Structure formats: C-alpha cells, structure tokens
Amino acid sequence: MKLFTALILLFSCSVGASGSDASTHLDLTSSAVGYIALFIFVLAYTLVMLEEQLHLRKSKPVLLAAGLIWLLLGFAYSGAGQIDVAKSAIEHNLLEYAELMLFLLVAMTYIAAMEERRLFDALKAWIVSKGYDLRQLFWITGILSFFISPVADNLTTALLMCTVVMKIGGDNARFINIACVNIVVAANAGGAFSPFGDITTLMVWQAGIVEFGQFGALFIPSVVNYVIPAFIMSLFIPKEQPNVVQEFVEMKRGARRIVVLFLLTILTAVGFHGLVHFPPVIGMMMGLAYLQFFGFFLRKTLPNSLARKRAIAMAEKDEAALKRLGSVVPFDVFRRVSHAEWDTLLFFYGVVMCVGGLSLIGYLSMISNVMYLEWNPIWANVIVGLLSAVVDNIPVMFAVLTMSPDMSLGNWLLVTLTAGVGGSLLSLGSAAGVALMGQARGMYTFFGHLKWAPVILLGYAASILCHLWLNGGAF
Prior knowledge:
By secondary structure, this protein is mainly α. It has 23 helices and no strands. The protein has 2 domains: 1-13 and 28-81; 87-251 and 344-475, no CATH class.
C-alpha cells in the first residue's frame, strides 16, 4: 500500500510539471499517468475482442479499466490542485451515459416485451411456411433485416433472422454462413439511417448534431451498402428447396398493441426533441409508462380473457388451445426490464468513462488535431469506418463526438454512415456479427465472413461515393 501511495505521488508530481495553468485541463499525454491509463484501456479492449475465446463478458474489463483510469486522474488532479476540473469532467460523462442508458433500456424493454408476446416467433413461422427456395430466403431475410433494424436495433434483428436461417438451413453450413454474412451487412446498413438502428446513430442524434429527419439522407447510401454485396453473394446460392418442418405459432394477447405503443413511444421521443428541445430520453421514459399501463390492463383483464377463451376451446373441443391457456402467465413490465441486455449497457458505461478519461488526459485532442486538421475530414471519416471493423464502433464514435471536430453536416452524416456500416467488414466489427458467431457456432465463422470482405468493401466504398454525390450540398 505504501508503494502504491508513493507511485501515485510520483505521478502527481510529473503531472504538476506538465500542467500549463490552473484554469485549464492538464496535459497528461507525456506523463506516467497518461501512459498507464492508455495501457489499461488497450489491455481491457484486448480482452473485449477476445470475448468469444475467453468466455469473459465484455463489460467486466472495461468497468475495471474505467475505475482505474479515473482513480489515476483523481490522484493526478488532486496533486495539481484542480480536482474540480476532473469532477466536472466525470459528471459530464456520467450525464452522457445516463441519457443513452435510459434510452436504450426503454427500447430493449419494448423489444423484450415483443419477444415475450411471441411476435418474432410468429414472424419466423410465417417466413418458413411460405415455401421459398434458398435464394429467395437469402433475399427475404436480408431485406427484413434491413428494414427491421432501424426500429428494433441491428443486434436484435440479426439474432431473429439468424434463427430463421438456422431453422431453414439445417446442416447446410455453406448456406448458413453466407446468409449470416448477408444478415450482418443488412442489419448494420439498415441501422445507419435511423437514430434507433444503432447506438452510434443514437449518440449522434442525442448530441444534437444531426436532427431526426436529416438521417433520411443516408437511406439510399445504406441501400447501396447492402444491395451490392448481397447481389454478388446471392449468385453463389442455388435455387433449391430447403427441408423444413412447418409450425403454427400463436401470438400472445396484446402483441400487436405493444408494437403500436412502441411506435407511439418513438414519436413521443422525437416530439420532445423537436418541439421543446428536451433530450429524447424524456420521451422514451414517458413511453415506458405506456407499456406499464398496458401491462396493468393486461393483468386486470386476464381472468375474463382466459374464461372467454376457455369456453370457446371447450365448445370446439380444442385440446391444444386448452393446454396453451394453462401456460398463460400475467404480463410483467419489470420482468421485461430484467431481460434487457445488461452486459451491453454496462459495457457502454465502461466505454464512455474510459474514453472520457482518455479525453481528459489529452489523447483525443492529439488524435483530433491529426485526423481533422492535418487530413481531409472526408478521408478521416472513411478511416473511422475502417477502424470500427477492428475496434467496436461504440468507442470509435464516442471518441469522435468527444473530439467534437468542426465539420459540416455532410461530414457528420458521413462518419455516422461509415461507423455504422464499417463494422460489417469483419465478423468481430459489430455486435451483430459477434452475436451470430455465438448463435451459429461452427457454421458462421470469422474466416467464413472474411472471404466475403472484398465484396463488402466494394459496397462500403460505393455507399460513401453515393453519399458524396447525393448529399454533396451538405459538405
């Protein structure tokens, strides 16, 4: 313990020498504190990238790293007599996280509620029952991924469509691999033109940099990003019928009304942001009340609903219906909240706090000066997209927002597009790809995705050129 205290005092001394003035942030980029903080972050993120191999949840290393980085900063700023500066910075980052976390929590709760009401199971059964061949199913799952992800987020959409593909493909590993690649590309592209489609687009919208309606300018570039690789990949899929067993899925009571409430919640969030200029999260939390009141209504009316259905089933002598009624449980909103992706939410906290700490040290200013002052911003934003294929797009986009470079609307839309779709280049580059490697283990693999990377890169380049051409006036 004495050794630790001595080291901290040593770091604080080196910090004091590097600070220019008591009213500004300290420049810690060349200090021991800065180097150790950078090492901690790199080590934590290496463990995140090895999540599948280590079976270590990605939230754990970044939570620890965030605490250690801010502990170092606390000692450093205390030693320099500027603890109020560090306190103000940590409170700012906590506020940023709280807004995004609550927003995501409501969205995840609605998705979990839809899943519990068997809405997605019914959609899956409907697709399987239509008797499409493999190539048609390739296009259907891809197009549905593209159009569902703007509302249901790319991770949930990818998992849903992968379930369909696994059910249809059976032991056809070649079809499952290429169909999963297609789903990842489609889900990421679909999420790029909607504030609800990906955490990166949500961050840009929450920051007030791009208005809700302005994301629509990315729709055609996103279509181009998906269609080009999808068309080339579809040529390698035979037109043969899959061997599948059809099943009937009955949605639970209230499933369709929950979809309507979710859309109303989105409109409420947009209204709060557009009409009174409050953070959209206030509207989302109000939307959670819609679901809570509807859950109350479902619980109160459940006995009468069961009695009516039981009478009909007995009159029709439908044993299957009677059995299903026996397994009905009341709808509970807080149980749906517990099913949210807490690992993702905690990972997001760790990333926000780590990047915020590195920003206070001064590293993001250094990077920003190189990328956005010495380079052309267009090339810088293209590189951001390529980086998001290796490093998760959440810390990459949060770093860009923290740098806050002076860019035109066109360039902000460009970095939103590239950070959103760049992760499709590798299976590890997006949450959708990582999740599908776990769900379709052994059939959808890193190298199975990698062999299609040149085709995906073609779509990536074409989408950027399309954006520069269509939205050139915004630059």
